[in-house]
Amino acid sequence: MPGVSKNEEINAEHINHDNVGSHQHHTRLYELLKQREQYWWQARQQLLIRKERKMVWYSENSLMMWLLWQLVGYVVVAMVLMLISNLLGIVLPLWQYIALFVLQTVIFVFMLMAKGRAANKLQHKIDKDEMVSEEAFNEMVILAKDSLFPDVHANAPISLKQLYDYFEGQFHLTSLHRLLQKEVDTGRLLLTQQRLDASILPPDLADDELDDHASEMIYKSMI
Asked: Cis link prior to 202 (omega < 30° from 0)?
């Protein structure tokens, strides 16, 4: 991932061997969690961008997009030729215009034929991004077990917005929601909402969409 070197990678599985009870260790866990969260966020953003690109250019309904951009290409080339002709006073014969548009069409056909190969390469990158993202998130969960989760239980009931404000925005809302959902899934936390639309929010929403419901998403400890 951009901005994350091999030396910065964290082996979260070794964290539990430290002195868990010390304040210094607790602070260190949060520092590692923040680093891993940033790494996961970058991987997630890259994954979403590539998935969006695949949907636009290589989905079953993408042919119309390809044809649209080919049409735009014809218009742009025609406008450039007209501009050059007016500026330089050059008058091209009709057959040269036709030859240029034929060449452009041939290039488009070859690109369309190579569409499947490009889609496979993009899917390979998506699969790799998903693996990297999943590994980073699993390490976040390991770190959160000895840092974030105990603090949430100790201060519950607490809303997602209150938790976000407590960390002064050092974690993304989506990251906090995804992590706490792990505790909800195990039955250690109970997520309550005042509105139905908040209860059906998928866990991968962007922060700006999740922010509208964060104050209503209240976590109660079940331990």
From this structure: no
